[in-house]
Write a structure and sequence with these properties.
The chain is built from 13 helices and 15 strands. With 423 residues, it is α+β, with helices and mostly antiparallel strands. The relative contact order is 0.19.
Length: 423
Amino acid sequence: MPKQKQWFKLDNAATVFPGQNTSRWSNIFRFSVMLTEKIDPYILEQALADVMPRFPCYDVRIRNGLFWHYFEKNPNGLPEIQPDIVNPCHRVKFKENGGYLFRIYYYENRISGDFYHALTDGLGACFFVCTLAAQYLRLCGHKISVGFNVLDITFPATKEELEDPYKKCSLSKGRVSRGLSNVYHVKGTKAPKHMVNITRGIVSLDDVRALAKSYGATVTEFIGALLLFVHYEKQKQEKRKQKKVCVQIPVSLRKTFGIHTLRNFSLYYLLDIDPLLGDYTFEEVLKHIILSLRDINNEKTLRAMITANLKLVNSPFMRIMPLVVKDLAIGIGSLFTGEKATTVLFTNLGKIDLPEDMLQFVDCVEIMAGPGRLNAVRCGGCGLKDKFIIDFANIFEESDIEKRFFTALVKMGAHVKIESNRR
């Protein structure tokens, strides 16, 4: 392979994450692949060594410049393969883990990667962990092809895979307003520091697709609406001042713009309902989500949103502001406004495609959105073959949101198997 690039600028989405980092919280998420055989950590370690040169934008540590953070080639060897932990997605410290911004874990037949969001988004993590799992299976003696979410590790990363894709797509003269409201948040008993309560629902992908289709919706629209409705009903029963209820839905931009990057390339939509306008049925909430998502999910609007984000970063004031002041301002801003406009987050990677000869060795895949600081729960979903897994990460001891959500799903006709790390 050609000589690896020695440093990278943070992409546009990543610039805010270092300033948000605290001793208790980082913007972390997890992607996992469950195989049909038990993991050998020594073989997994070799697989990681084989895969890392294909992903030079992850083989980095974060450094401080005068005005901006940047990534440089990590000189510290490979990150350590670790036995899995009960509470995933815990905060990142930049000098731990050899300076790497992702962690690889194993447990029984599961390979998991916890990724700091400054490195990449959910789909980038999916490419990495699926490629790692494929190479692991090859080292175990299985013949595994490349394609779909498994990259060819005999070829170097392309220029397009490594560059900041936002800059290519920021050529809009339009303006998009994002009026942020102080919305409803669930209250509860905070779990101890670095603890997260995980509830996992396993459903048939065909069943959840059919259920969504019966309402004229996609899976993302359907689950996003159900999460919104569950929170709306909970607030209504609490008999307190009624606020807007908002679901945040991140969406990958790769398909829309035809750009294949390993770095961040997504935006998020904020979709809300206002209880002061009157009572809502689930069907009304779903119709609102469908119309809103389909209205804004187009190339012109997305370009305008990207342009607005880049204008803030590229403003003369921000460019000359020293890094220490930037991080302080971002940290304070995040503390007071970061999640106040969001009641719940739902990220959906959809159906994950793998090479045909790999499918027999993979049971399922899953994505877990890391816990928030203010949101009671964050939710992630993805599927493989006929399994669709919905993960809830909860910062509170109470689990009524998860119970309400899965109860509603069962009443609609879905069969759900529940797993949890709660004791």
